Structures are given as C-alpha cells and as structure tokens.
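Write out this protein's structure.
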Amino acid sequence: MKLAVFDFDSTLMDGETIDFFAQELGFKDKVVAITERAMAGELDFYASLVERVALLKGLPYEKVESICKTLPMMNGAKEVVDGLKDRGYRVVCFSGGFRDATKPTCEKLGIDADFSNFLHAENGVLTGAVGGEMMYSNAKGDMIVRLQNLLGIDRDNTLVVGDGANDLSMFAHADTRVAFCAKPILRKEATHSVDVKDLREILNIAV
C-alpha cells in the first residue's frame, strides 16, 4: 500500500476557496494579498488564517455552500486520483482551508479522506471564527505521520503534492515531494516540480 497526500487550494482546486468567499463581500484583493504572503512563508499561517476568516463575518452560510459546490477543479484532478488509486495508493487531501469545500470535492473525485478546518456559523451567517486541526504551519506534517503509522506506510511509499509554505511540514515526511505550480519556498524542498496546471503530470512521477 502507498499513500498520496494532496493539498486542496491551488492544487486539487484551481484557486483559493477563501478568495471566492471574499469576492462575495467585496474585498477579494485584501484577502488575496494576505493569502499570497502566507503561502510564500512571509506570514504565520495560523495568524493569517484567523485574520482572513474574521473578514468573512456576516457572509450567509447558504452562499458558502453554493460556492463550495461549484469550485473549479484543477485540470486532471479526477484522472490523477483514479490513476494513483489504480497503482495502489490511498489518496488523501489535507487543507488549511475549509471542510465545506473539501468534502463535496473529495467525494466527487473519489478521494479516500479529507482533513481541513471548520467555519463557524450562527443563525445562518458566518461568525468570523474558525477551528480545526489544519490551522497551524506544522499541522500537515503531524497528520501525515499519524496516517503513516495508522496505515503502516513509510516515507518511501509516500507522495505529497502542494503549492505553498504550509505544505512544508508534510514534505518533511515523504520521499516523493511534488511542488505543483508552487512558491519558491516549497520548490526548494521538492524532489519534482510541475509548472503547468495539469495534475496528470504527476502520473509520470508516481511509481
């Protein structure tokens, strides 16, 4: 058995979920700027996540659900999941984003499990609060070690794919590390880089 772990935003999905939410409220540019700095490793991930989610206060939860059902998939997402599963991989998604987005998408793609954060809503609107196990810069690394132990899979048989600084911690526990259209901080730690928006390229890397 082998393990493949994918980041969600700008990896399995073409874009950043929180940017789509912010667009509804009219301040996408402000959120995009914070996201860019966090993914480049210039900001603490936890602090930047809390700051960005606080800006979403008042967004109707039904709007969150409708946006998450129509997020654009990265080219080749379904094919890479199917191809890896055919080769004996368990395919998992780790996201510093939100389960409202990862759950419907991962079900559609046939991904075995997804781990992400939860947006808090009250009386049908977002409160600006967020919680979960993927809120910290070391969260993905901690979770991948737990999964490897649970499944009996070592780093030799682990493939990870991501694009930003918060993927660094999981890169530390895999021998095959793919930087997908990634920030320079992640490219430095990668064994492979894919510079085109086509996840099928990973099938040329995975064994």
